[in-house]
Amino acid sequence: MLDMVKYWFWYDWIMLGVRILVSVSIAITTFDFQDSLTLPIWIIILWEIIAFSVPWVALLFNYKYYLFTEILLYGGLCIYLTSLFPGANVTFLISVFLIAANSQHLSYYWTAPTTVFITTGIFYAVAPSNSYWIMVTNYGLAYVMGFAFHLLIVNHKQNEAIRKQNAVLEQYMSQIERITLAEERNRLSSELHDTVGHAYTSIIMGMETLRTELATEMGIQRLDSLLEMGRKSIEDVRGYLHQMDSPCQSPSLIQSLQNLGAEFQEHAQVNVSFRTFGEEYQLSRQAKIAFIRCLQESLTNAVRHGQGTEIIVSLQFDEQYTRLEVQDNGKGNVEWQEGFGMNAMKERAMNLQGHLSVYTKPEEGMLVTCTIPRQTEIK
What EC designation does it have (predicted)? Predict the structure, then answer.
């Protein structure tokens, strides 16, 4: 329950504050007029506590439970008090407002007539001195105000969802740019190694074949000078390529995934926890990129499709394989269909003799597992 309260917005606290003020006011009034009560004071106070707490706790789980308990418990309390004190019917105005504010979908078709007409009829039956149509007008206005407040809440939630989506997309684009640059860097490194290295080697071998054909000592000296320059140049190129691909120049896999999770948590406002098992060992560039891409796609899906708020990332270093697991607490999906991003992740894992699996079930979130054999990684 406390976890749900952590994600409350300003309108949740406003409704709770109004409810507390009204309930405290009713309790104080009950003590002041306890001599006029037909039931023991402790029963009335207990009734008031139940009428305050039970509907609000029910709202944390399902709005339908709240609507039923609010009308039965709080409405019943107001009817009893109105039978003793005709003016007590005004206490039901706040309840009508909250019922309208928390109604959704088709529930308006029965909450509106129940609170505005049926309950008003009961109030009129127990306290005929009150005007029926005046009460209908008052409760109707309270219901309209509650409905307007509900529209305000819906608009705020939509804006918040759009903001989160934009934050996720911005973070997604940022990661795409980083990984694309890393892949391009690796491609250029490989091409330079293959083309320039091959060219220098061919030049050196060609000059070596000329050694026996040079008769003068000056020619041999010049040839030796050219050979030395060629060997030095190819060593410089290899050193540069090694520096480009040096592990110390780039973060480890654990650090890369932790940075990715921290950035995503900051932008998407979800809780991302990270844990590792085993001792980290050297991975190939392709394996690191595959795991980073997998985590990136899993985080994005958890928020965009699963609407998750808690994400647990587990990285396991085994003697035979490296495994990444991403578990979220989203709504899950029984008819999960893999998109372009997930298919690309599967293809990356398969190219490294690994595999990627997705498990999802309604109300159980989603679990994405990417496993790559270690013997592939150390090539």
Answer: 2.7.13.3
Side chain identity, residue 279: E
CA proximity to 126, closest of 189, 83, 77: 83
| Architecture of the domain delimited by 252-377 | 2-Layer Sandwich (3.30)
| Residues 6+ positions from 248 with CB-CB distance below 8 Å | none
pLDDT at 376: 45
**Whose structure tokens read 């003697």?**
319
Mean pLDDT of 358-363: 84
Structure tokens at 378: 């150390």
At residue 252, φ and ψ (nearest 5 deg) are -70, 170
Pairing of the two strands 310-317 and 355-360:
unpaired
Tell me the angle at which helices 285-304 and 340-351 cross, rounded to the nearest 10 degrees.
160
Sheet of strand 271-277: strand arrangement: 271-277, 310-317, 321-328, 366-373, 355-360
CA neighbor of 371 nearest in space, from 287, 301, 259: 287
DSSP 73: I
User: Could you report the per-residue pLDDT of 122-141, keeping only the tens digit for each?
Assistant: 999 998 888 899 999 999 99
Counting Cα atoms < 13 Å in the Cβ hemisphere of 294 gives 32
Which of the 8 DSSP states describes residue 272? E
> How far is it, in rounded angstroms, from Cα 123 to Cα 82?
7
Q: CA 330 to CA 326: how far, in whole Å?
A: 12
The letter for the amino acid at 123 is F
The Cα 21–Cα 274 span in angstroms is 43
Strands 310-317 and 271-277: parallel
